[in-house]
Amino acid sequence: MSWRPRLIALDIDGTITRVGTEEVAPAVRAAIHRAVDHGAHVVLSTGRSLIGTRPIVDDLDLRGTTAICSNGAVWWDTTTREVVRQVAFDARPTVELLRELFPGAVFATEVTGEGNRSLGRFPEGDLWGHVREVDLAELTAEPTSRLVMRWIDRTPEEVSLRLADVSLGDVAWWVDNAEPWLTVAPMGVSKGSALELLRVRLGVAESDTLAIGDGHNDVEMLRWAAHGVAMGQAPATVQEVADSVTGTVLEDGAAAVLDRWFAA
Prior knowledge:
- By secondary structure, the chain is of the alpha/beta class.
- Helices cover 30% and strands 23% of the residues.
- The strands form three sheets. The protein has a six-stranded mixed beta sheet. Strands 2-1-12-13-14 form a five-stranded parallel beta sheet.
């Protein structure tokens, strides 16, 4: 085959791992390794915090690349194991507005590489690393790269409806497609914007980029890529912006995409 992507961006949850698990299916793992063996830059591009991303990087033994975490706000060098780029924002105005819009919601701000400060208690397993419950002042005392909110016992549709025609100010945000979960990042930060900066640094042509994802926070990434692929279970709004749609995560759809170029 005359063309293969040189920069491959992979979402984690719902793309290379099934939601609620930390396991990469054998077929997907093998396909990723074949792409690496062929010289492709494989970049995990995720809404997860750094502390939630590291175990997947280590499980796949990805070295010599960059992990893009917190929807583009945190970059981690997988060889030196150091944060090489970080963007943060003042979350207090956003939290104050969201508390009015979502009574009973719980909030957390990322402490990069360590865990989270939380305002209210999240369900077990929602947050990675050490979680310390604090008051509003301490929650927002320092700039953060990632603010998350869960509206307990509600649905993603209810979160989206409540946010319709509402401005959250100078931030970027996404509603999860499976949980009543909102992620907020600094204005101008997304997986797509981070990947474009990384592409330029690596000297990869725009035409040599591939991205695979399944969530609303993958839309900018799928639009950025020369070939953006939505997972089969992705919402219709995500599939609409993709160049193609593969099988679901249960069908190892990411492996099917990679095997198109790296099967041998």
